[in-house]
Amino acid sequence: MKRNHSGDLHASYTIGALTVTSLRDGYVDMPVTRLRQPGDKTFDDGPPPQLRLVGGQLRLSVNAFAIDDGADVALIDTGASNAWHPTMGRLPQALLEANIAVDRIRTVIFTHTHLDHIQGLILPSGEDAFPRLSRLFVPWEERDLFRAEARLQRFHDRAETFEGGQRIGASIEAIAAHGHEVGHSCFRVTSGDEGVVVWGDIVHVPSLQFARPEIAWEFDDDQEQARASRLRIMALAADNGYAVAGAHLDSPGVGLITRAGTGFQFDPL
Ligand SMILES: [Zn+2]
Q1: Overall average pLDDT of the 119-138 stretch
Q2: What is the pLDDT at residue 7?
Q3: Each residue of 134-151: pLDDT tens digit?
Q4: How far apart are the first and last CA of the chain?
Q5: Rounded distance, CA 62 to CA 28, Å?
Q6: Among 29, 35, 137, 259, whose Cα sits 20 to 30 Å from the Cα of 53?
Q7: Spacing, Cα 83 to ligand 1 middle (Å)
Q8: Is the pLDDT score of 236 beyond 90?
Q9: Spacing, Cα 63 to ligand 1 middle (Å)
Q10: Largest alpha-carbon pair distance within the chain?
Q11: Is the pLDDT score of 163 beyond 90?
Q12: How far is the centre of ligand 1, averaged over its atoms, from the C-alpha of 144 (Å)?
């Protein structure tokens, strides 16, 4: 996997015959109390020393990933648009910077239906962000959650559902990784003998959760299940030599993962 070009809001990589581009929607700051030890316990004796804080808060990058096969572009997650804090919503500028025309994006795939992943379907002006969108994929278990998003009403009937194991196009395969949300999914993207796992919200806090994958997140729908999924997906990537690409890893959020002690180590690319 080779890094091609990059800028403030993007980094582009070659995987076999594919171009995979990380796109930075922005960031969101969260309190340390969101971190949970097994048993839903907070860190009452102070945060773990390896935590990297910005102004006393956890800063989560918010990233989306474009997969370009030379014909069409599939986008995995879309950022928050103007639906949350104003520190997010820069996906359109990131696409411009990366030189990806929005009318080449024909497929959008969601890892799950939290707003920092789906609301970027619509620009702040109310227009469609991707005017030539033809296929929109939502995890089967989250179809009702998606249909509950009133702002995205015009997309409700267009959404197709997918399940773990299903292929979406020639190079993308869904992997069920439930827990953070009921249908949370990762995507194995392969070409030739190279691959990257675009893993959504497997990790929220990279300074802690690689070394200590047992640490969960208050917003996990099911912390136990999320913990098991994190361990399984990290092992899958580490043991197969796949790169990983994370929605909340520090931008650009792409790198290699190896086993280290009782946890894992992440080396950004
Ligand atoms: Zn998220």
Answers
A1: 97
A2: 97
A3: 999 999 999 999 999 999
A4: 9
A5: 7
A6: 259
A7: 13
A8: yes
A9: 9
A10: 53
A11: yes
A12: 18
Q: What is the pLDDT of residue 87?
A: 98
Domains of the chain are 2-268 (3.60.15.10)
Q: What's the CA-to-centroid distance between 218 and ligand 1, angstroms?
A: 12
Kindly give, in sequence order, each residue whose CB lies less than 8 Å from that of residue 184, ignoring residues fewer than 6 positions away: 111, 112, 139, 177, 178, 200, 201, 221, 226, 229
Residues facing residue 30 across a β-bridge: 58
> Which residue type, as a one-letter code, is found at position 237?
A
- Residue 214 CA to chain centroid, in angstroms? 19
Place of tokens 């497997």: 202
Please provide residue 165's backbone torsions phi and psi, each rounded to the nearest 5 degrees.
95, -15
Are 35 and 28 spatial neighbours (Cβ–Cβ below 8 Å)? no
> At a CB cut-off of 8 Å and minimum separation 6, what does 190 contact?
15, 16, 171, 173
Mean predicted lDDT score pLDDT of the chain: 97
Using CA atoms, how far apart are residues 146 and 221, in angstroms rounded to an integer? Answer: 16
Write out the two tokens for 113. 């239906």
The CA distance from 171 to 6, in Å, is: 23
User: What's the gap in Å between 202 CA and the centre of ligand 1?
Assistant: 9
Give the Å distance between the CA of 248 and the centre of ligand 1. Answer: 7
57: DSSP letter: B
CB 91 within 8 A of CB 120: yes
The Cα 146–Cα 162 span in angstroms is 13
Nearest alpha-carbon partner for 147 in 136, 132, 135: 136
